[in-house]
Amino acid sequence: MDVLIQEAEIRQRVAQMARRIEADYRGREPHFVGVLKGAAIFHADLVRELTLPLTIDFLSVSSYGSGTASVGPLTLDKDLEDDIKGKDVVLVEDIVDTGRTASFLFRWLPKRKPASLRLCALLSKPSRREFPASPDYVGFDVPDRFVVGYGLDYNQMYRNLPYIAALRSPNEEPSIAHSEHTATSEP
Ligand code: 5GP
To answer: Which of 41, 91, 95 gets mutated to test ligand 1 (max ligand atoms within 8 A of its CB)?
Structure first.
C-alpha cells in the first residue's frame, strides 16, 4: 500500500476542521452523528478536539460488502438512539465516494426534523460523485483509489492504521514486505 496522508497531517487537519466547526456553531450544542464503522475513529478524534458543548450518536448503513466493490441497495443497519428533532446535527462520514450514502441519509434524516443538518467528511473523492452530496466540511480530497486506515477498512482490516493508505492492485509490487513466519495457534 502507498501512504497518502500521514498521521501528523490528519491530526493537524482534524484540529483545523474543529476550529471551523467551533466558529460556525458558537453558542449552540451540535449533535455529532457518526456513520459506523468507518467514521468511528475520525468522529472520536474530532469531538475530542471540539471545545463546544456537544452530544454524539451513531448510525450504520451498509453500502459496501467485503472487498472494494459496491454491492446491493442501501440498508439502515443501526438507527439513531437519540431523537434529533430540533437539534443541530452534523453527520460525520469517513469518506464521500459516489455520494450514495450521504444523499440517502440527507433524504432520510430531515424526516426526523433536525433544526439543521450538515455533512462533515474526513475524505472526499470528488471524481467519483454520482449522487448529490457536497460535504460542508472536508478533511482531504483523495484520488480515485481504494483507501484504508484511520477507520477505513478492506475486508474489515486496517481500520487501526493511524494513517491513510491506498491499496495497490494485486499486479503491482507490494511495498510492505510480508514475513514468511509459520502459523501458530497463538493470537
Ligand atoms: P458512497 O456511498 O459515498 O459511495 O460511499 C460511502 C462509503 O463507502 C464510505 O462510508 C465507506 O465506508 C465506503 N468507501 C467508499 N470509498 C472507500 C474507499 O476508498 N475505501 C474504503 N475503505 N471504503 C470506502
So the answer is: 95
